[in-house]
Amino acid sequence: MKVTENKIYNPAAECMDRESIKKRQDALLKQTVEHVYNNVPLYRKRMDEAGVKPEDIRGTEDLHRLPFTNKTDLRDEFPYGLLAVPQEEIVRIQGSSGTTGKPIVSGYTQNDVDVWTEMVARSLVAAGAGKEDKIQVTYGYGLFTGGLGAHQGASAVGSMVIPMSSGNTQRQLMMMHDLGATMLCCTPSYAIFLGESLQEMGYNTKDFKLKSGCFGAEPWTEEMRDKLESLFDINAYNIYGLTEICGPGVAFECCAKDGMHINEDHVIAEIVDPKTGEPLPYGESGELVFTTITKTGMPMIRYRTHDICTLDATPCSCGRTLARMSRITGRTDDMLIIRGVNMFPSQIEEVLLKIPGVAPHYMLIVDRVNSTDRLEVQVELTEDMFSDTVSEIEKIQNAIREQIKSVVGVSANVKLVPPKSIPRSEGKAKRIIDNRGLTK
Ligand code: AMP
Ligand code: ZN
User: Fold this and answer.
1) pLDDT-flagged residues of the chain (< 50)
2) Residue 308: how many CB atoms within 10 A of its CB?
């Protein structure tokens, strides 16, 4: 494994003592709560209903008094309902990966873009980035935060950015080789695919200058880290984020590779019991909840990520004092990330309900073949259709495939199965068989 120089980019922020972190969070939390109470009708309504006034929030110890915010709130208030500033203050819109049906969008002021950029820059520096680096960005560019987020962060570090966006494996490898890219930013599953293709295409790892990579946007494992590090002879670092908070860079790994430091000078992290919503102490596994404290355009108060992990505020060997989150070990909802795209089984259901001849009984089977996610959708035919000709059945199959691609944004293999062949459940229907082994 190559040695990367793990610099601390902004010691004043990243190595602040815990007491100063709390003081800063207290002051900024109060400001944020006042800002949203005065400018966002939904927050005011929710706080009024809960009987909480901005002046009741004295610091992080009062956080639990504030109502939660959910993905459904972003959908219901789409596109501008949660903005806390006039639209002319917004300089950027980004959206969650996945669905073309019901988007989740976030509006950024210039301040918000700058804060986000700083968070990604920190993450890249922790992974060894400096001015001399050539950073290949293979996350998709567009509404998805991965591409532009990594791009801005790398530019802020002063590195050379190679804005490849996603796809076209041969070209990715050719550019990585010919331009001498030293760092790679993409999803861990695509990185493995690139690494395997590198060998198949007859390249030798020694001919590459790659020294490290920042991989995120989907769950991955320590086994995948080992594989990535040996495939490319690099250090592989985890990076976490979500559109609702800003995008990648909310948390990042350092040289210790023992949890991701959360940028606590910009966000407050909590772990809550997913069932009761009660805050849990550090070390206990539960749902991660974020409150932004420096965002102005669309601040988020106690946003429920549905991601499950643990938090740890003990000192890290790298010198940073920012608390660390563990790998994401699961979700509290049934969201799946397929080839970096977020999707919910309910979206498949919506598609099926619009197609005559099929029953709304389905099963999603997810596998990873040659490091690439494969989604099979098994759908039950109705009794009427079951006796139909092969060409009729093929027509339905194609219609479902096309609709899934257009609504969910993911290519799926559609398999039509006889009526009543999908097991019925007495309780919550089991709709997903995920064979990738990414969560515990
Ligand atoms: P998006 O807003 O489309 O970028 O999706 C955000 C979601 O992607 C998060 O809530 C997580 O479920 C997932 N995600 C992002 N980064 C990671 C990571 N490093 N490990 C596991 N899941 C991640
Ligand atoms: Zn550290």
Assistant:
1) none
2) 20
Among all bound ligands, the one having the nearest atom to the CA of 14 is 2
Q: Give the closest ligand to the alpha carbon of residue 312.
A: 2
| Amino acid residing at 246 | C
Q: What is the C-alpha to C-alpha distance for residues 170 and 150, in angstroms, rounded to an integer?
A: 21
Q: How far is CA 324 from CA 10, 57, 199, 252, 313, in A?
A: 17, 25, 35, 9, 6
Q: Is 238 in the pocket of ligand 1 (CB under 6 A)?
A: yes
Cα angle 68-286-429, degrees, rounded to a multiple of 5 = 85
Ligand nearest to the CA of 314: 2
182 lines ligand 1 (CB under 6 A): no
Question: To 10 degrees, the CA torsion angle through 71, 72, 73, 76?
Answer: 130
Does ligand 1 lie within 6 Å of residue 189's CB atom?
Answer: no
What is the separation of C-alpha 203 from the centre of its chain, rounded to a whole number of angstroms?
31
* Cα 8–Cα 108–Cα 155 angle in degrees, nearest 5: 40
Tokens at residue 331, please? 């979700």
Q: Which atom of ligand 1 is nearest to the CA of 238?
A: 19
> What number of H helices and E strands is found in the chain?
12, 21
Cis peptide before 79 (omega within 30 of 0): yes
Atom of ligand 1 nearest to the CA of 342: 3
Look at residue 98 in the predicted model and tell me its pLDDT: 58
Residues 6 or more apart whose CB falls under 8 angstroms from that of 48 comprise: none
Whole-number pLDDT of residue 350: 86
How many angstroms does the Cα of residue 283 sit away from the middle of ligand 2?
Answer: 17
Tell me, what's the pLDDT at 282? Answer: 97
Task: Identify the CA nearest to 274 among candidates 334, 185, 318.
Answer: 334
Alpha-carbon distance of 421 to 424, in angstroms, equals 9
Of 44, 3, 4, 6, residue with least CA distance to 316: 6
Tell which atom from ligand 1 comes closest to the C-alpha of 104: 2
Query: Is the CB of residue 123 below 6 angstroms from any atom belonging to ligand 1?
Result: no
